[in-house]
């Protein structure tokens, strides 16, 4: 598993505002979108391309286009939906599929409650969007689901991860082509499975449900 933790003052600044409990939902949503766009730059580094011939006003030259089959972007509902616009701004030709997952806050086990993905993901590069990687249970379930459908690789973009969750994803995905791109790797999980210092419940903060 490859892990890339962003190291850029703009990303750290935007994350700091996001973490602040006084930041209201509209600002939280805008910052989430901006952060995804910045992280997507790194996450799409290995996106497959094909050479194309183009005519500039001056000469004929060779450029690149995103190859077929198009990449698949999968936001994990609900919180991952807040990352979708930022991602598709950068990769407008990507196809979008959805996975609805919720973590049982007592057992911390993930449950898949909705799915709308292409049946066959053979040969697809997939990008999973979820702001929080806490115990890792949700991301592991999402990654297994995508590989079971035939995906060739999975890149997850998360704003914040806990070291415990990152280690769990690494253990569960041995031998798979998995890349995790993070805005920050935090200190730990607390006794109720929240990331410390984290930002609280991303879904609640995005959608104002607290
Ligand atoms: O790593 P884990 O321990 O599995 O926790 C992370 C999951 O928890 C959050 O979703 P949540 O279950 O709160 O659903 P929501 O997006 O609807 O708020 C988050 O968006 C991840 O999907
Ligand atoms: O800290 C956490 C852990 C799980 N889900 C969140 O939204 N935040
Ligand atoms: Mg939540």
UniProtKB/TrEMBL annotation:
Co-factor: note: Binds 1 Mg(2+) ion per subunit. The magnesium is bound as Mg-PRPP.
Matching SUPFAM superfamilies: PRTase-like
Gene Ontology molecular functions: GTP binding; magnesium ion binding; uracil phosphoribosyltransferase activity
UniProt feature coiled coil, ranges: none
Metabolic or biological pathway: Pyrimidine metabolism; UMP biosynthesis via salvage pathway; UMP from uracil: step 1/1
Residues annotated to bind 5-phospho-alpha-D-ribose 1-diphosphate: 78, 103, 130-138, 201
Activity control summary: Allosterically activated by GTP.
UniProt domain Phosphoribosyltransferase: residue ranges: 5-209
Enzyme Commission (EC) number: 2.4.2.9
Positions annotated to bind uracil: 195, 200-202
Family in the record: Belongs to the UPRTase family.
Functional description taken from the UniProt entry: Catalyzes the conversion of uracil and 5-phospho-alpha-D-ribose 1-diphosphate (PRPP) to UMP and diphosphate.
Protein name: Uracil phosphoribosyltransferase
């Amino acid at each position: 598993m490859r892990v890339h933790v962003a190291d850029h003052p703009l990303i750290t600044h935007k994350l700091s505002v996001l973490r602040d409990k006084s930041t209201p939902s509209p600002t939280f949503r805008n910052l989430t979108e901006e952060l995804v766009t910045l992280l997507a730059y790194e996450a799409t580094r290995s996106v497959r391309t094909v050479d194309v011939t183009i005519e500039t006003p001056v000469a004929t030259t060779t450029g690149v286009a995103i190859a077929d089959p198009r990449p698949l972007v999968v936001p994990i509902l609900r919180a991952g939906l807040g990352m979708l616009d930022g991602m598709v701004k950068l990769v407008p030709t990507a196809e979008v599929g959805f996975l609805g997952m919720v973590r049982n806050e007592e057992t911390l086990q993930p449950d898949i409650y909705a799915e709308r993905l292409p049946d066959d993901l053979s040969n697809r590069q997939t990008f999973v969007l979820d702001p929080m990687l806490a115990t890792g249970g949700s991301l592991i379930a999402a990654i297994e689901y995508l590989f079971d459908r035939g995906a060739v690789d999975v890149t997850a973009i998360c704003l914040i991860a806990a070291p415990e969750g990152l280690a769990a994803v690494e253990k569960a995905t041995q031998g798979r082509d998995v890349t995790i791109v993070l805005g920050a790797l935090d200190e730990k999980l607390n006794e109720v499975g929240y990331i410390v210092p984290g930002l609280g419940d991303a879904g609640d903060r995005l959608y104002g449900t607290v």
